[in-house]
## 1
Amino acid sequence: MERSKESNFSRNNREGLKGWLNPARYGWERVSYWLQRLTGVFLLVYFIGHVYETSSLTRGPDAWNAMLELTQTLWGHLFLILVIGTSTFHSANGIRLIFTHGGKGLGKAGRPDYPYDALSLNYRQKSGIWVALILSAVAMLYGSSVLFGGE
Amino acid sequence: METRRVILRESQIMKIQYITAIAALVVVAVHIMMRLIMPYNMSLEYENVVVNYHNIPYALLLESILILIAIHGFNGLRVILLEFRQNKIWENGITVFTITAMIVIIAYGTRTIIMANQLGLK
Amino acid sequence: MMEIIKKIGMIKNKNVKDDNNNNRKGTLRDNVIIKVFRANRIKGDPISYDSFEVPVQRWTTVLDALIYAKSYRDSSIGIRYSCRMASCGSCGMKINGIPRLACYTKISELEGSTITCEPLTNFPHIRDLVTDFSQFFNHHKEMKPYIHNENSDIIDRQKLSEFKQSPEDVDKYLQFSYCIRCGLCYSACPTVATDTKFPGPQALSQAYRYYADTRDNDKKERINIVDDRHGIWRCHFAGSCSVVCPKGVDPALGIQLLRGHLMGLSKNEKKIAKLENRSKN
């Protein structure tokens, strides 16, 4: 029977972007991968905007105050709270990933036995995801108290 | 794996990614805390912001944030975009785009820092 | 035989809820609908799904149900299978959206009265549930999946020689050698979903399998192979490969352990296995 000559680089039947965007099927690590990507892209966009927004300082106090009027609004504050949350999650999860990418906290290779639970998907590193989410929520709460607390 | 002329190996690039992540975490934490040494709204007033730029160590801190986050962020974007398509034009284009973007944002941010440092107060 | 079936029926009746559409997990059912993906990619047929009602018992696997459907309902169903005991890796497919081995998945483990069977994603599709594994095998071959040790006398067979390996040495790579090349991890991986040059979790875990093997002394070459723009660094520890692996290989562990060596975080403790020569008498 003739073997298929499908190219190594064929995109036939690849999940594509859908494969990234659906995190729900494979557990917490897949969710953390998805969130790390989303928060990373979001923070990069914020960073570019922030560098541009702070450059209004060089155009004098009027330009700075005009920029503040745009950003120190309800939606501006809500956006900033989102930035606080995403940066906290991205940082905390990033630290967890630096350890796990280096093989730390994943256990040692051994002799697998039924039911063949994966050692690397242990609660020690998985709890890092939950800690990152909790820290992110706490940071957002604190940020809200500062931004809306009228300090 | 195909052979390609490389200036930096991928392992070296990723080590830079991890190091910039940890360093950026420290400096951004300091930057955020500077917003909390006085009431938040007061910290955003023109004069108070300009005074920060006159403080050389703080200006250097801002410059380091700029460089670290630009490298970390755009390298991360490079990684995401490299996974999306694989052909020579796309991959070389992504490399050129991300390096250019890094340089542009660092240059623009540095311009702000230098000009703000030169600004006088009312 | 009839008495046994009656007894199972009695157990079934205890568990089934009144509403037949809401079956609890692990519930026994008399029949189930198998919804099979049908398309002939070579002929360019449009995609469709054919549903078959098949009888099930407590032990019926998805593969059993598919073989029943093929035998008694529609013999044109394209399906690949062999050992029927999770040893060959041939029957990998997406069952209710998750890559699984059909022979290793019992109908009673799955929720709902309809089981959807689709070909593995990220593999070029051929027909119905059959996919092309040549890309997958090519990525594996790129890792040089064999012991490389110039001291081993595979050419000059005048003497018998043996690499001495302790049980502790074997434990370092044993679980990764259990891989049956079923492709479930490759199908689940989010990087493979878009990156055609990424070797995939199976190939990378095999790279670690040989890296960790004390009989192999070609560390530098193995590192060079994976230290690439589309190599090991495109793994982001999404862990999906280890979630779906049916043999406990835990490819994610192998990849991160290998990456630890590239990052310089893991100590280089490997001593190359001593070659002991024996005479042929």
## 2
Amino acid sequence: MNLFGKKNYFSLDGNEDKRKNDRRKKRNEPSIPDGMWIKCNTCKSIIYKKEVTEYKLCPECDAHFRMSPEERIAITCDEGSFTELDSGMKPKNPMRYPGYDEVIENAQKKAGIPEAVVTGHAKIDCYEVVLAIMDSHFMMGSMGSVVGEKVTRAVEYATEYRLPIVIFTTSGGARMQEGIISLMQMAKVSSALARHDEAGLLYVTVLTDPTTGGVTASFGMLGDIILAEPKALIGFAGQRVIQATIHQKLPEGFQRAEFQLEHGFADRIVHRKKIREELATILKLHSS
Amino acid sequence: MNDTMRKVAIARKIARPNTKEFIEDIFEDFLEFHGDRLYADDGAVIGGIASFEGIPVTVVGIQKGHDLEENVKCNFGQPGPEGYRKALRLMKQAEKFKRPVITFINTAGAYPGIGAEERGQGEAIARNLKDMSNLKTPVISIFTGEGGSGGALALAVADTVWMLENGLFSVLSPEGFASILWRDSSRVEEAATLMKMTAKDLMKDRIVDRIFYEPKEGIENNLKFTTDQIKTALRETLPELRGLSIEGLLGRRYKRFRQYGEFME
């Protein structure tokens, strides 16, 4: 995020802004709440929850809802083939950010996992692969020490065992609560990917909604092959920051997967139901 | 105003010496090269070849202006993807001719705009991080003023990272931090202290290896006071880094960035 030296991105005194903020939060609430009925954020239809299958698509407009790593593994890997790496890694509080422990605890409760990424090795259509799957339900998939370390170790594991790696990204960027250490994760993961690349190994990125900031500007954009889910928000700078800088309306479809394809930053847009099949083909064509 | 915010104000001062002035003071024979060979020449990043006491080097840095006219030319020191790609082109050239690279960083951050996104700001920064980590020649980075987030890091994957006394490096501005995390812009001083963004803080966190002091009268009034220290440091460090094998150099650089992170297992 580029927020340096800009003093008035949005004014913050008074309750109006807090209300706006709350509304924005609600609007972006990605996942499917409990209860029988849910509302699609894209087409606004009220959907009977049971109509949403394991692919988490809107039955009305085919919008791709945000998924948990567990759900992602279920539709991507061969059944029972996933073995998790570094499952016990938990965050500390490097910047001594007040209340961080509580923030983390709430995020863990909400997402049901200890941090914003799950890594492991698995098989996709019998091809061995290392996986890293991020979770936007955990502090918007923000990258702090744990995310950076787990992804780096997954990449190093792939390099050591000469395996391809597939990373499903979803993230708001660096985790501000961990300060500069979170920024350094971008360099750490990118360095590990450089070694994986030098070893002649395959890296596939699957960009899912939303992938922004420090994750886009590091491993998000470094895949040999970059796939993206339809309509996923993908970009570097946040839309509010851009708007506050240029004082212009952003074009329709700005920073969506289709925009990235059009501008040459994604290889393919792949419907979620086809991702397993396409990954299998890619892995097949790269196996010796 | 607390200590950190005073440093923030100094780092952002319009009179603060810019990258071009540092380069011209420290090096001889500076020849500026332009363009990323792909799309444009970004005035926010300058670079080229020069010599340091007889050693050919490549210098690259983020450029700010001292008035509006200059700042329009260099986009207030906020590079677009062309700037990062120009920097990488020059660094790759340095690799080919076995020249050490010295980068100068002073930016509020990468430019957030429509064109920058269309041309892949994220990709440009990512590519720099990855390729710099593997650049087969010594790299030294010097933070001279603001060090705003990914846009600064994109020129700082180096073998050793140095900083001026009033330099900064952080994940976002203290204003942004207070606004986003606390929704309270009045807490900016508290944010600035908490973020540990000053040279001293960063040295403790092993992000910065060396600090250069600034003169009491302000660096804009006595640049030589600080550049003399930079020259001494280059005199010591360049032979040391050039003496390493490429494998040794890259191994060291990898370890440097590999170490960052605090977690429990």
